[in-house]
Specification:
Pathway: Amino-acid biosynthesis; L-phenylalanine biosynthesis; phenylpyruvate from prephenate: step 1/1; Metabolic intermediate biosynthesis; prephenate biosynthesis; prephenate from chorismate: step 1/1. By secondary structure, the protein is α/β, with parallel strands linked by helices. The chain is built from twelve helices and 15 strands. A hairpin with a 7-residue loop joins strand 13 and strand 14.
């Protein structure tokens, strides 16, 4: 045996040893998670026990990234640990996660990124249906899109919070990569129609105008629906992502065709429980102010005075009357932080209505 072959055999033996050690460690962690679940059940025999703790998971994943020695990237290491935590949590009872469907959408990708693949993901046809599924208790959490870096806010999601009792429990930021997909036997000259969601068309407008000018563009309810149609109709293509391509067996005619390489969509996790502080949090509120001079100034001044950074300010028509508006505000910090408490108390004294939508761990790419 040559020196190279001997060294390779040694490395393989070391990998086998490490695999056995990893297996033992993961199994020990799973047993510990089972003991935690049992302790919670014993301590709360008459209550619905909450096994999933968003703030706890966020803290664990932050520590993993901080301590990661490489060579795997921080995000890849966090993904591996997220899947392990998802599998351990499912030992007690897999969670049902509602999302804006159908299957193969970016919203499903966001749900799986946040919760891991050991949950039961439930596709629903509309944002309001996701809210109803969680409100009824049929799903523990829901995932809905709220903002795209190219196209801005998704107003339907914001409007749902005006009447819904649900809380924002987390956020997911997902880099969106669009591909032009078609059946494997399709030739570019044969394509006469492209399907996609209207927002995806908007995010790929310049690329389409340059490379597929004059080809019919048909907006459908989702990118997954676009992929389904392209898989069944000869002479058609779809703009969609990797999950839809895999689900419907489509080939990539052109990849990453979005006009902006940093194209990102933010999704919200909605649930019925408030989330304790994690150490790096964001808070969302809805505020209706009295219609008087200086109303916006009085709304924003407390944030400046308490050195709290706003991350989003939007206005939506109020359902209470014509030409009345509601402010949707995201800002850094948790509602239990003393400076945030002070701000919310000040605003509450000035506002017609203040609704705390939730404080939750900051999402990262």
């Amino acid at each position: 045996m040559s020196d190279e072959q001997s060294r390779l055999a040694q490395l393989r033996d070391e990998i086998d040893r490490l695999d056995r050690e990893i297996l033992e460690r993961i199994s020990a962690r799973a047993r510990c998670a089972q003991e935690v679940a049992h302790a919670k059940t014993v301590a709360n025999p008459d209550d619905d026990v909450v096994f999933y703790r968003p703030e706890r998971e966020a803290q664990v994943l932050r520590r993993i990234k901080e301590r990661n020695p490489g060579p795997l990237s921080d995000e890849e290491m966090a993904r591996l640990f997220r899947e392990m935590m998802s599998a351990c949590l499912a030992l007690e009872k897999p969670m049902h996660i509602a999302f804006l469907g159908p299957e193969g959408t970016f919203t499903q990708a966001a749900a799986l990124k946040h919760f891991g693949h050991s949950v039961i993901s439930v596709p629903l046809p509309a944002i309001d249906a996701v809210f109803r599924e969680v409100e009824s208790g049929a799903a523990q959490y829901g995932v809905v899109p709220v903002e795209n870096s190219t196209e801005g806010m998704i107003n339907h999601t914001l409007d749902m919070f005006m009447a819904s009792p649900l809380k924002i429990c987390g956020e997911v930021q997902l880099r969106i990569h669009h591909h032009l997909l078609a059946s494997a036997d399709s030739d570019p000259p044969s394509i006469r129609r492209i399907y996609s969601h209207q927002q995806s068309f908007a995010q790929c407008r310049k690329w389409l105008d340059t490379h597929w000018h004059g080809i019919e563009r048909v907006a459908v309810s989702s990118n997954a629906e676009a992929a389904r149609r392209a898989s069944e109709e000869p002479g058609t293509a779809a703009i969609a992502g990797d999950m839809a391509a895999e689900l419907y067996g489509l080939a990539t005619m052109a990849g990453t065709i979005e006009d902006r390489p940093d194209n990102t969509t933010r999704f919200l996790i909605v649930g019925r429980e408030s989330v304790p502080p994690s150490g790096q949090d964001k808070t969302s509120i809805l505020v209706s102010m009295r219609n008087k001079p200086g109303a916006l100034y009085h709304l924003l001044a407390p944030f400046h005075e308490n050195d709290i950074s706003l991350t989003r300010l939007e206005t939506r028509p109020s359902p209470s009357g014509t030409w009345a508006y509601v402010f949707y505000i995201d800002f850094e910090g948790h509602a239990e932080d003393p400076p945030v408490k002070k701000v919310l108390q000040t605003i509450d004294g000035e506002a017609v209505e203040l609704k705390h939508l939730g404080s939750y761990p900051v999402g990262v790419l």
